[in-house]
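As a warm-up, study this chain.
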Amino acid sequence: MEKGGSLNFIEKIIRMYRRIDVRIAELSKLHAARLKCRETCCTCCVDDLTVFEVEADVVRHHYPELLETGIPHPEGECAFLDDNGCCRIYAHRPYVCRTQGLPLRWIGEGEGESGDPEMFEYRDICPLNEEGVPIELLDEEACWTLGPAEGEMAAMQQEIDGGRMCRVSLRALFVLKAGSEKACP
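Now compare it with the structure written out below.
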C-alpha cells in the first residue's frame, strides 16, 4: 500500500503499538506468576492469523528484505518464525501477536435463555496460562479488552482504503511482496 499518506498510517500504528505495549506490560506484570509465554513459545503463532492492510504495511515497510529474500517458516506455524521458534518481526509484530497469552475479554452476541440474541462477556486465555485465579473471577481491569484497539485500526483501514476492510494473512505477505498488489481487490 506504500502510497501517499500510508507512511503517516504506519506512524499512527506504531504509536498505537506503543500505547498497547504499556498496558500489556502492566497486565504481564500483574499475571507474571501464571504467564508461561517466553521466547520460543510459539503455540499461538499459527498460520490463520490475519491483519488489516494498514498493519501489513508496517511489516512491509520495516522488513522488505525479509519479504523479498526470506523463506517463510513451514506451514502450520506463523511464516515469520525462525528455525528456533523466535519471531523475526517481533519489534513490529502485529497487534494480535502482542495480546496473545494474556487473559482476554470481549463482548459478543450469543443466544440467551429465551432463544433471543443477547450480549455476553466472553473470556479466554492461552491453555498454557490457565493456572491461577480462574479468568472468570478476574476483575475486568485485569484482562485485555478486545474491541477498542481493533476499532481504532478498522477506522484507519477505512480511511486509507476508502471503506474496504481488507485483511491479509501473515503468510501471504511473503507471497505479496513489498510494493505489489494488495491481497484483496
